[in-house]
Design goal:
The complex is a heterodimer of chains A (315) and B (251).
Chain A lengths: L9 H21 L4 H25 L7 H17 L5 H23 L4 H20 L10 E2 L5 E2 L2 E2 L3 H24 L1 H11 L1 H6 L4 H27 L1 E2 L6 H14 L6 H19 L3 H15 L4 H4 L6
Antiparallel strand pairs in A: 1-4, 2-3
Helix pairs in contact in A: 1-6, 2-6, 2-9, 2-10, 2-11, 3-4, 3-5, 3-9, 4-9, 6-7, 6-9, 7-9, 10-11, 11-12
Chain B lengths: L5 E10 L2 E11 L4 E5 L6 H9 L6 E6 L2 E2 L5 H7 L1 E4 L11 H10 L18 H13 L15 H14 L4 E5 L7 H14 L4 E5 L3 H7 L2 E6 L2 E6 L1 H6 L1 H8 L4
Parallel strand pairs in B: 3-8, 3-9, 6-7, 7-8
Antiparallel strand pairs in B: 1-2, 1-4, 4-5, 9-10
Helix pairs in contact in B: 3-4, 3-5, 4-5
The chains are: A mainly alpha (315), B alpha/beta (251).
């Protein structure tokens, strides 16, 4: 391994893409395809969720199969806040991050005492516990989930307009990518990457390995919670399906397709997977067959993920 | 009488039916080079693992620099001033030699917290200046930019030593630093350890008897998990029990 360093073209490409994305709603409106603004928002939100898992999995080396718990928890926090009459995004989104982050802190504090396949299993078990907790909670809608009757306001401005929510999701993703890009090259990023490679050696150099892992895990959980809260606003529902382990699997597949440990791996994976779903779902119902073939292709021809095709993770 | 830098009392450890360490009493004085020798399987590496905190004893106590460290984890013992090198080279092969040592410098508590999320490490000149200094101490200044995995075996052993030094230990636990090195590299390593010994207390586990008798102020002999003798090189050389159990016709 080497430490993460962005390729020289990464930043210009990111800025260029961001500019395009800023123009997208206007463009779609001009083409009379505003329906796709909602779809684009969904892609951005899943890009954020997959990126949060990539922080835990790709940079921290923790193979968590329970990430959906934090994703879903964020959605429920947003819905519960609305039930309680809180509708300001600047308050609700941080609360969703806090709720999901604290849940991740608790889950991590126990799970991170195990390694390897035990860690995968215990994170899965915790996520299923959270799932069953929510489907049995009548006050929160049980099986049906908890609906949101109106969207959040951002600094007083309603997000009822699809384009407005789109820009909020884009802003959240852009800020996250900026922060994670910094994190990856800062002390913390180097530390968790080195722990991923050889945790015993890091202990022997005096690093409190557990604490670093836990902070990374909780940070990933908080970002997943942010994505979940945005998704609940997009769909108008905090659904228990968001908490299910298959959701963790989907995020995992996105990261693997995109590129484990590449800063933009989660983003690329989310775009590829959701576009594929959108394109193929209309053509034939068993689009998962195509997904299977894609996964095979990635494993065989681009085992480090699609992002790896464009540049090296390591100098 | 001043307290020893490291004092082990009644340290025992069993692995299933095997008594790996049997009630070991052992001490290292500040400033000395203390060699631990013994036949293969005597428990030397197991003992080092207990000192460094990688393993916990069934019974017994370890005091280091005036405090009981038996219950401390590995990273806490490193912070307390105890560093180790590994018998099997343990470095980050994909990183440059400089990055390896910079990582060790960063891990030290007086180098600041590692919970920093914004400033790129490559702009932290102080970390790298210091890392360069440690590389120079072990004679690797010219290899700073080379990938650790591409260094020669002897250079990798030296790099590992530089990483241990970068934690600024009071006590250095060296587990067979000469393992697998050629005669020339061994000679350089002996010189290096001799040089380091002026600043830091060293526990040396080593099979190379020439090196041990040249470097050590005191030698302890571990046989079948039991410490059978501790003393000056002359005393150990003359000890009948040691001869019988281990040294045989080496001397």
């Amino acid at each position: 391994m080497a430490f993460y360093r962005p390729a020289s073209w990464q930043k210009p490409l990111a800025v260029f893409t961001l500019t395009l994305l800023l123009a997208l709603p206007t463009l779609l409106q001009a083409l009379d395809q505003s329906f796709y603004t909602g779809f684009a928002t969904r892609v951005l939100i899943f890009a954020l969720a997959a990126t949060s898992l990539n922080l835990v999995l790709g940079f921290g080396g923790m193979v968590s199969l329970g990430h959906a718990a934090f994703f879903g928890a964020g959605a429920y926090v947003a819905a519960i806040c609305q039930q309680a009459g809180l509708g300001e995004a600047l308050l609700v989104l941080p609360l969703a991050m806090l709720g999901a982050g604290l849940l991740a802190l608790a889950v991590g504090a126990i799970s991170l005492r195990t390694r390897g396949v035990y860690f995968i299993m215990i994170t899965l078990a915790f996520a299923q516990m959270v799932y069953y907790l929510f489907i049995s909670a009548r006050a929160w809608g049980g099986d049906d989930g908890l609906p949101l009757y109106e969207r959040l306001r951002f600094a007083g401005v309603s997000l009822a307009d699809d384009a407005a929510l789109y820009y909020l999701a884009l802003g959240a993703l852009a800020v996250t990518m900026l922060l994670l890009g910094r994190l990856a090259e800062a002390r913390f990023g180097r530390t968790i990457q080195a722990i991923r490679e050889n945790e015993t050696r890091m202990e022997a150099l005096g690093y409190p390995v557990f604490r670093h892992r836990l902070v990374c895990f909780a940070l990933g959980g908080a970002l997943a919670g942010l994505a979940g809260a945005l998704l609940a606003n997009l769909t108008g529902l905090a659904s228990p399906a968001l908490l299910q382990w298959t959701q963790s699997g989907t995020l995992l597949v996105m990261v693997i397709i995109g590129g484990v440990g590449y800063l933009y791996g989660g983003v690329v994976g989310a775009v590829v997977l959701l576009l594929l779903e959108e394109l193929l779902l209309g053509v034939f119902a068993h689009w998962h067959i195509a997904l299977g073939l894609l996964l095979l292709a990635v494993v065989l021809f681009a085992p480090k993920g699609v992002a790896a095709l464009f540049g090296k993770r390591h100098d | 009488m001043t307290e020893a830098l490291l004092a082990v009392r009644g340290l025992s450890r069993r692995f299933a039916a095997i008594e790996a360490l049997k009630a070991i009493d052992f001490s290292i004085d500040a400033g000395e080079v203390h060699a631990l020798i013994g036949p293969n399987g005597a428990g030397k590496t197991t003992f080092i693992h207990h000192l460094s905190g990688a393993l916990t004893p069934d019974s017994g106590h370890i005091r280091f620099a005036g405090r009981d460290v038996t219950a401390l984890s590995m990273h806490q013992r490193v912070a307390a001033g105890m560093a180790r090198s590994y018998q099997i080279t343990n470095i980050f092969r994909g990183l440059s030699a400089l990055d390896n040592v910079a990582l060790a410098v960063q891990g030290r508590s007086d180098a600041g917290s590692s919970f920093r999320f914004w400033r790129p490490v490559r702009r932290e000149a102080r970390l790298f200046d210091e890392a360069h200094a440690y590389l120079e101490q072990v004679g690797l200044q010219a290899q700073a930019a080379s990938l650790a995995g591409q260094l020669s075996h002897g250079q990798q052993r030296a790099l590992e030593l530089a990483m241990a030094l970068a934690t600024r230990p009071q006590l250095l636990l060296l587990d067979e630093p000469m393992a697998g090195t050629g005669p020339e590299e061994s000679a350089r390593m002996v010189e290096l350890i001799e040089h380091l010994a002026r600043h830091v207390t060293i526990l040396l586990v080593e099979h190379d008897m020439a090196a041990v008798f040249r470097l050590a102020d005191r030698i302890s002999v571990l046989v079948n998990g039991q410490l059978i003798c501790t003393g000056t090189p002359e005393a150990v050389r003359a000890d009948a029990g040691v001869r019988r159990a281990y040294l045989g016709d080496h001397l």
